[in-house]
Specification:
alpha/beta; 21% strand; seven-stranded mixed beta sheet; binds S-adenosylmethionine; single chain
């Protein structure tokens, strides 16, 4: 597939981007944000990995489907030291970042990349004991078909971990001290509409009730558990977390520019002003709170 600069991305839980056009995005431009997000949420991902490890056999192969720049692929390699990890993504640019990351981490022997796209591209991949889908399924028009293809790539007794849903990230209180209170909920609402429009434009787009456990079960896998993991960084933020928060709000502002009213946009601009004492760069009350839900399902043993 040619480089695809305008893959779509939702703006629901993780504010993962939006450029140039209301419902499209540029993964290349988004890579640093995905990396920073993965690094910031690393403890959350490690907790998820340990939760999976506690109730499933240790995998010797892991597929990270829709891996992006491979932050989580490398974390999984560290958490499952016996496993070889394939980072699978349609975007060669992101896979190159994943390879560089693996090299920096000394993981080149156990982290490989494979260019492929759901739902049809996984046929040549060997089944794995753990198939990880981190906020990638919602980029596929026909999610049911994609999960059916995923189910074929789970080794007997293996597990699928599907990260979808959760709650919108919060970084400031409802009333930030100026502008109309409730800005964050209005941004959420705008992003939900954008997300639906994004999904409607995907090739083969099919509407599904987002009952992830039921969708997993429809493939013949046996539903496992669902659990939500928190990233809870109370104020005052570290410099790194603060940068991530500012980056997140900047991205959210880009995504809702056409939808929010002038007052709300002015509030966001004031929050993003690096010199304003009431801006995110300086205010003491900024925090980071996010919730990601993981759904597991298992393949029958051999
Ligand atoms: C929001 S990013 C998540 C990246 C990574 N899993 C993480 O949690 O940081 C979504 C990823 O899904 C990939 N993607 C988009 N469409 C896809 C498809 N049809 N099949 C597989 N991956 C896809 C994108 O290239 C992108 O890397």
């Amino acid at each position: 597939m040619a480089h695809a600069p305008h893959r779509h991305d939702p703006a629901n839980q993780h504010q993962d981007g939006g450029h140039h056009h209301a419902h499209t995005m540029d993964w290349t431009q988004l890579a640093p944000h995905l990396e920073r997000e993965g690094e910031t949420a690393a403890p959350q991902y490690r907790e998820i990995a340990r939760w999976i490890a506690a109730s499933h056999p240790a995998p010797d192969r892991i597929l990270d489907v829709g891996s992006g720049p491979g932050v989580v692929s490398c974390l999984l390699a560290e958490e499952f030291p016996e496993a070889v990890v394939s980072a699978v993504d349609p975007e060669e640019f992101l896979l190159a970042r994943a390879r560089q990351r693996a090299e920096r981490a000394g993981l080149t022997e156990r982290v490989h990349t494979h260019r492929a796209e759901l739902p049809d591209g996984l046929g040549t991949l060997e089944p794995a004991g753990l198939v990880w889908l981190g906020r990638s399924l919602h980029h596929v028009g026909d999610q049911r078909a994609a999960l059916a293809a995923i189910a074929q790539r789970v080794a007997p007794g293996g597990v699928v971990a599907l990260l979808e849903g959760g709650l919108p990230t919060r970084v400031l209180p409802r009333d930030v001290g100026f502008g109309r209170p409730g800005l964050w909920s209005r941004i959420d609402a705008a992003e939900q509409d954008r997300f639906s429009a994004m999904r409607a434009e995907l090739p083969g787009s099919t509407r599904e009730t987002e009952d992830w456990a039921a969708l997993l079960a429809s493939t013949g896998l046996k539903p496992g558990a669902s659990r939500t993991f928190l990233l809870d960084r109370p104020a005052p933020l570290s410099d790194g977390d603060r940068e991530f928060v500012i980056d997140t709000v900047r991205r959210r502002r880009e995504m809702v520019t056409d939808v929010l009213d002038a007052d709300d946009l002015a509030t966001l601009d004031r929050l993003l002003d690096p010199d304003a004492p009431e801006g995110l760069a300086r205010r003491p009350d900024a925090f980071l709170l996010s919730a990601q839900t993981v759904h597991t399902a298992v393949a029958a043993p051999a």
